[in-house]
Design brief:
Layout lengths: L5 E10 L2 E10 L3 E10 L5 H4 L14 E3 L2 E3 L1 E9 L7 H14 L4 E8 L6 E7 L2 E8 L4 E9 L8 H8 L3 E9 L10
Antiparallel strand pairs: 1-2, 2-3, 4-5, 6-10, 6-11, 7-8, 8-9, 9-10
Helix pairs in contact: 2-3
Length: 188
């Protein structure tokens, strides 16, 4: 049996300031069970953190501030070579959903398409904080993954999930800070 968990579905509940997520799926030794995860709500405003411009109390600002830079969110472009399971849409869906939860994101829905005859998969997990998408070429062992998240989500936490599940021989990650100040442009 593989050492990773395959999450078949999740259900979330919000009580006060906590978000509880119950994950159901197949775990090692073929057991079907639920796993309760307790996570803090993933997005807060700068006012709630006591930083930044807090002029309008009703407006939330989900821009990120890191390394002295202010931007909309972190967009990771992940190229994987020598990867496996690239022709299995249900497996990829479960993997991307797990990657989203580990990063602290809120899943809204997902959609995957399985191409024939090559068997490639294209799909997206739509998040309240943006998205995770994938396009695979199983005949080449290649997957192109986009991880774009705003707020307090950390897309870098998704990468170990992808590595464990898709077992690539080589991974390249490029970071783009979306919505950062363009040269000579207005401040975000």
């Amino acid at each position: 049996m593989p050492s990773y968990n395959i999450v078949s579905h999740t259900q979330s509940f919000i009580f006060g300031e906590k978000k509880f997520i119950v994950q159901f799926g197949e775990f090692p030794f073929g057991e079907e069970k639920g796993m309760l995860t307790d996570v803090q709500l993933g997005v807060v405003s700068p006012k709630e953190l006591g930083i930044g411009n807090t002029g309008d109390a009703d407006k939330k600002d989900y821009f990120v501030e890191r390394d002295g830079m202010r931007f909309a969110g972190t967009h990771l472009l992940v190229d994987m070579w020598g990867a496996s399971h690239l022709d299995e849409p249900d497996f990829i869906d479960a993997t991307l959903r797990e990657a989203a939860l580990v990063a602290g994101a809120t899943i809204l829905h997902s959609h995957f398409h399985h191409f024939t005859p090559s068997g490639g998969v294209s799909g997206v997990v739509v998040l309240a904080e943006s998205h995770i998408s994938i396009h695979t070429w199983p005949e080449r062992g290649f997957a192109a993954v986009d991880l774009f998240m705003c707020g307090l989500c950390d897309p870098y936490k998704s990468i170990p999930v992808l590595r464990r599940a898709l077992t690539p021989k080589e991974v390249e990650v490029k970071e783009i800070r979306r919505g950062s100040k363009p040269p000579g442009g207005a401040s975000p």
